Amino acid sequence: MIDVASLNLLKGKKALVTGIANDQSIAWGCAKAFRAFGADVAITYLNDRAKPYVEPLAKEIDAPILIPLDVQQEGQLEQAFEKIKKEWGRLDLCVHSIAFAPKEDLQGRVVDCSKDGFLRAMEISCWSFIRMAKLSEPLMKSGGALFTMTYYGSQMVVEHYNIMGPVKAALESATRYMAAELGPKGIRVHAISPGPLKTRAASGITEFDKLLKKAQSKAPSRSLVSIDDVGVAVAFLGMDGAKLITGETLYIDGGYHIID
Ligand code: 0WD
């Protein structure tokens, strides 16, 4: 019989959540869920322009740490993890919810993608997660869980997703390799694949409203997902009860991906 009271959910866990741009961000759904289950949550913001949108959210979840993080700025990732080490000395959960591709490349064919555009999209959307795992490893002394956000367009050709498809495919593969490498230390690594949600980053995808309509009509649940649906599922994967689940690409899409 499982003693629910002994299920520590996320009580006392230390979490770092990156990629919150505003209260529509998927990362915000994760931060709220982690806090609701008892974790202490540190959050990052992209730059001074983003800070006024993120600061009130940090207050809402009593975030003890609020740090600037632009993964393109040399050393900022290391500084963020130094702050975590100094304040907490450890880390249990880390969410990477960061992606970017230059508009002219994102809105063009993959065939036409520029070298710089590809490298920048890979650096921000994929390499930064690999680096986050490297920096998390020494802090996750009693195990932990790392999460990144991916999309179905990595597996199937989704109109207008373009260069982000190959970038997310690389991210999902890196997730599996890192799950294999970090598993012996009790560190799990997952790629979370939400269905489409109306966020700032999504506004860069041409005809996104068409994608939303198709998702709603085709998914078995006949419903779009919310950032809270994603957050609660990620929080579950962060709990000790999920410690033997790792390396997954978990679809939180109302079942959309199972339909031809
Ligand atoms: O339908 C969607 N919205 C889906 C998004 C479906 C499936 C997956 N995703 C993924 C995205 O690819 C991304 O990896 O979820 C992740 C988060 O995206 P989001 O929550 O949809 O969008 P948004 O609220 O824009 O968060 C992305 C954030 C940036 O926000 P803006 O809007 O300012 O680009 O990523 C952050 C930033 O906060 N970000 C960076 N953070 C650090 N360094 C950088 C950077 N260089 N660039 C973007």
Automatic annotation (TrEMBL):
Gene Ontology MF term list: enoyl-[acyl-carrier-protein] reductase (NADH) activity
Regions that span the bilayer: none
EC class (word): oxidoreductase
Binding-site positions, substrate: A101
EC number annotated for this UniProt entry: 1.3.1.9
One GO BP: fatty acid biosynthetic process
UniProt keyword Glycoprotein present: no
Residues forming the catalytic site: Y151 (proton acceptor), Y161 (proton acceptor)
Catalytic activity: a 2,3-saturated acyl-[ACP] + NAD(+) = a (2E)-enoyl-[ACP] + NADH + H(+)
Binding site for NAD(+): G19, S25, I26, D70, V71, I98, K168
Listed pathway(s): Lipid metabolism; fatty acid biosynthesis
Matching InterPro entries: Enoyl-ACP_Rdtase_NADH, NAD(P)-bd_dom_sf, SDR_fam
Record-stated family: Belongs to the short-chain dehydrogenases/reductases (SDR) family. FabI subfamily.
PANTHER family reported in the protein's UniProt record: ENOYL-[ACYL-CARRIER-PROTEIN] REDUCTASE (PTHR43159), ENOYL-[ACYL-CARRIER-PROTEIN] REDUCTASE [NADH], CHLOROPLASTIC (PTHR43159:SF2)
This protein's name: Enoyl-[acyl-carrier-protein] reductase [NADH]
Lineage: Bacteria, Pseudomonadati, Pseudomonadota, Alphaproteobacteria, Hyphomicrobiales
